[in-house]
Specification:
Strand order of the largest sheet: 1-2-3-4-5-7-6
CATH superfamily of the largest domain: Gcn5-related N-acetyltransferase (GNAT)
CATH class of the largest domain: Alpha Beta
CATH topology of the largest domain: Aminopeptidase
Strand content: 15-25%
Number of strands: 11
Distance between the termini: 66 Å
Radius of gyration: 19 Å
Order of helices and strands: EHHHEEEHEHEEEHEHEEH
Number of domains: 2
Shape: globular
CATH architecture of the largest domain: 3-Layer(aba) Sandwich
Structural class: alpha+beta
Number of helices: 8
Length: 276
């Protein structure tokens, strides 16, 4: 078994996309999965052209089987921070059939080793801290994974609450990212705030639309990219995906609860429209 880790480039960006496609043939052929892959590809390439290295790919016998996506915290537009020495990990993923072989650990170790040296991501200075989300997402185990790898949970914004200091002097590090406190907004209609870093974004958006229109077919629905509509996200106090229905925010939760909440809020909005 030969594993090698390679940095992302414009030539191998498709390999990063191949790492985490859906396992079922039905989902792989879904038009919205394909659209989501294109959205993620554009996001990756734009980030690469802006900051440089922003992902690593693990190959097992020349087949892409794992990847880790990252960027400096201060270039993420929906996070407000003055610090320019923090690297944010968007996600890490290893194909199910090759897990428990140390591939994820190798990706993380490669990233840590690189960030301990002066590099162009921080204008030739040294990164001091790695950060990632502490928000639990149904079906994902990344929070527990990072904690097992030495990340610790601090106070502050849940979407940047796990940290890994890169020096002994950084054990008491704190981040200045404001807390995520989604606000209620005086508005009608639906706004779906999604993150282009995940290829499932378009598939999820369309499922949200279907569930809403089954109970309220005439309501206006808009999709909002967190990276291109960051000012709107900041105004609302959100730093993760969220769905607003009639000004009320709905954050990630267990699927059964999420879909019930989506339909309840959409139905409630319909009743108000009828009353008006």
């Amino acid at each position: 078994m030969k594993i090698k880790v390679v940095s992302l480039s414009e030539e191998n960006v498709n390999d990063a996309l191949l790492v985490c496609p859906p396992t079922s043939s039905k989902l792989r052929s879904d038009i919205n999965i394909k659209k989501g892959l294109e959205i993620r590809k554009r996001w990756l390439l734009n980030l690469y052209r802006k900051v440089g290295l922003c992902a690593k790919i693990a190959y097992l016998d020349n087949t892409p089987v794992g990847m880790i996506q990252y960027s400096p915290l201060h270039v993420i537009p929906y996070f407000k921070t003055r610090r320019k020495d923090v690297l944010y990990i968007h996600c890490i993923y290893v194909k199910r059939k090759v897990r428990n072989r140390g591939i994820g650990s190798l990706l993380l170790k490669s990233l840590i080793s690189e960030m301990k040296k002066p590099n162009r991501l921080f204008e030739r200075a040294q990164c001091r801290v790695l950060s990632t989300t502490a928000r639990e997402r149904y079906g994902f185990t990344q929070v527990s994974y990072f904690k097992n790898k030495g990340f610790s949970e601090i106070e502050g914004n849940i979407d940047a609450r796990l940290i890994y200091p890169l020096s002994r002097t950084g054990r008491k590090e704190k981040l200045d990212v404001p807390s995520s406190e989604p606000l209620h907004i005086n508005e009608r209609g639906v706004k779906i705030f999604f993150n282009p870093s995940c290829h499932m974004c378009k598939y999820m958006n369309e499922n949200i639309k279907v569930n809403i229109r089954e109970v309220n077919p005439t309501i206006e629905i808009k999709e909002c990219n967190l990276w291109t509509r960051s000012k709107e996200a900041i105004r609302r106090g959100i730093t993760s995906v969220a769905t607003y229905i009639n000004g009320k925010p709905i954050l990630p939760m267990k699927p059964s609860e999420f879909w019930k909440t989506i339909r309840r809020y959409a139905c409630s909005n319909k009743r108000r429209q009828i009353e008006l």
